[in-house]
Design brief:
This protein has one domain: Chorismate synthase AroC (Chorismate synthase, AroC fold, 4-Layer Sandwich). The protein is built from twelve helices and 17 strands. It has helices at residues 30-40, 49-52, 111-118, 124-130, 135-150, 174-181, 193-209, 238-247, 260-263, 268-271, 346-369, 374-389, and strands spanning 3-7, 14-20, 58-61, 63-64, 67-68, 73-78, 155-163, 166-167, 215-222, 252-257, 275-276, 288-289, 297-298, 301-302, 307-313, 324-326, 333-335. The strands form six sheets. A five-stranded antiparallel beta sheet has the order 8-7-9-15-10. The protein is globular, with a radius of gyration of 22 Å.
C-alpha cells in the first residue's frame, strides 16, 4: 500500500517527506522533483518567502542508481530561512526572551482553534505547522507518485480557472494544460492569455488595498483507464478519496468533481454523459461518451475519460491590513497578528493539489494492479488494458 507523511515547521530547519510502498525499479529524476517544487513557488501574488527559499529535495533513502528499490523513500527540503529562526525556535529550551509570539489570532487561520486545542499561550507553534509551507513536502512526495503513474502512461496536471471574479470561459484541452505546466515561466497558470490578464488585474486590485484573493484551480488526470476505484465500499471510492486529498490542502474550502456544482441545478438529461460505441482506436475501450460532465468518475470508479477535480481556495488569512482580533494575553480587542504572507496562491495550490491527486490515484492503481517491481506492475497493467479492450 502506498503511504506518505510529512514533518517539519514553516520556520524550522527543514521539511521531511516520507513515501513508502513504491515498487522497485521506478526511475526517479531529481530534476523532475525539483522542477515540481519550483512550480509550487511560482505565480503572480506570491510573497517575500518565495524570494528566500529555493526548494530542492535531498533524497536520503529508497532510491539508488536513479531507481526506487522498494524501501521507504525519505526526502528533506532545507528551509533557507532557518538561519534567521534558529535562536527563536530552538529544539532545546533556549532563551524565552527570543521567542517570537503570535500574540493575536488571525481570523480564518488555525491560530485560535489550534491554541485552544493544544493549550498554547500564543499561536506560534500552531502557525508553524498549519502553514502552507508544509505543502512543499507534499509536492516532493507527489512527484514520486507522478513518476510512478507516468510509467504506466498516466499524467497529472493543473491550471487556474478563476481568480476572484475573473474566470476562464471555456474548457481547457489536455494538450493545453500539459504545455502550460511545462513552461519555464508562470504568471497565473491559465491556458488563456486574455483570461489570465483579467486574473492579474484582480490580483493588482487587492495588492493596492492590502487584501488577499482566492480562486479556483482544476486538476486533470489524463490516461487513467476505467476501473480504478470502486463502488463497493464507501472509503474506497475514487471521488471520495480525491475529495479528501484536495480538501486536506491549506485554504481549500470546497472540492468539485466534473460538473458537480452546476449539475446540482440542472436536469438529468443535460448532465449525464450519453454512451456510444465504436470509439477511437487509441481509447481504452470502444465505449465512448459525448461529454465528460461526470469528470471521469461514475459510481466511485474511473470511466476512462479525463478525471477532473476542482479546488475552491479561500483568500489567504494573513492580511497586510489585519482584521479585528483579541489579544491572547489581555483578552482586549486588537488587530490580528501579521506574518509575512502571499496575496494570491491559486496557481501554487493547483500544483500542491496535483501532488495530492497523484498520490491518491497512485495508491489505488497499486492496489488494483499490484506488483513489487515496476516490471510486474506494467505487466499487470497491460494485461488489464487488453482485457477491457476486448470486452
Amino acid at each position: 500500500m502506498l503511504r506518505f507523511s510529512t514533518a517539519g515547521e514553516s520556520h524550522g530547519e527543514s521539511l521531511i517527506a516520507l513515501v513508502s510502498g513504491m515498487p522497485a525499479g521506478v526511475p526517479v529524476e531529481q530534476e523532475f522533483i525539483n522542477h515540481e517544487l519550483w512550480r509550487r513557488q511560482q505565480g503572480y501574488g506570491r510573497g517575500g518567502r518565495m524570494r528566500i527559499e529555493r526548494d530542492t529535495a535531498h533524497i536520503l533513502s529508497g532510491v539508488r542508481h536513479g531507481k526506487t528499490i522498494g524501501s521507504p523513500i525519505a526526502m528533506s527540503l532545507a528551509n533557507n530561512d532557518w538561519k534567521n529562526w534558529g535562536e527563536i525556535l530552538p529544539v532545546e529550551t533556549g532563551d524565552p526572551e527570543k521567542h517570537k509570539a503570535v500574540a493575536s489570532p488571525r481570523p480564518g487561520h488555525a491560530d485560535l482553534a489550534g491554541s485552544l486545542k493544544y493549550d498554547f499561550p500564543d499561536a506560534r507553534y500552531v502557525l508553524e505547522r498549519a502553514s502552507a509551507r508544509e505543502s512543499a513536502a507534499r509536492v516532493a512526495a507527489g512527484a514520486i507518485a507522478k513518476l510512478l503513474l507516468r510509467s504506466i502512461g498516466v499524467e497529472v496536471g493543473s491550471h487556474v480557472i478563476r481568480v476572484g471574479k475573473a474566470e476562464l470561459q471555456r474548457p481547457a484541452e489536455w494538450a493545453e494544460i500539459a504545455a502550460l505546466n511545462a513552461k519555464e515561466s508562470v504568471l497565473l497558470n491559465c491556458v488563456d492569455a486574455e483570461s489570465e490578464a483579467a486574473m492579474k488585474a484582480e490580483v493588482d486590485a487587492v495588492l493596492r488595498t492590502g487584501d488577499t484573493i482566492g480562486g479556483v484551480f482544476e486538476v486533470v488526470v489524463h490516461g487513467l483507464p476505467p476501473g480504478v476505484g470502486t463502488h463497493a465500499n464507501w472509503d474506497e471510492r475514487l471521488d471520495g478519496l480525491l475529495a479528501q486529498a484536495v480538501m486536506s490542502l491549506q485554504a481549500v474550502k470546497a472540492v468539485e468533481i466534473g460538473r458537480g456544482v452546476t449539475a446540482a441545478e440542472s436536469l438529468g438529461s443535460t448532465v449525464h454523459d450519453a454512451i456510444g460505441y465504436e470509439g477511437a482506436e487509441d481509447a481504452f475501450t470502444k465505449f465512448s461518451r459525448e461529454k465528460n460532465n461526470a469528470g471521469g468518475i461514475e459510481g466511485g470508479i474511473s470511466n476512462g475519460e479525463d478525471v477532473v477535480v476542482r479546488g475552491y481556495l479561500k483568500p489567504i488569512s494573513t492580511l497586510r491590513r489585519p482584521l479585528a482580533s483579541v489579544s491572547f494575553t489581555t483578552r482586549e480587542p486588537v488587530k490580528a497578528a501579521y506574518e509575512r504572507s502571499d496575496v494570491c496562491v491559486v496557481p501554487a495550490a493547483g500544483v500542491a493539489a496535483e501532488a495530492m491527486v497523484a498520490l491518491a490515484v497512485a495508491k489505488l492503481a497499486l492496489e488494483k494492479f499490484g506488483g513489487d517491481s515496476l516490471r510486474e506492475l506494467q505487466r499487470n497493467f497491460s494485461g488489464y488494458c487488453e482485457q477491457i479492450k476486448a470486452y
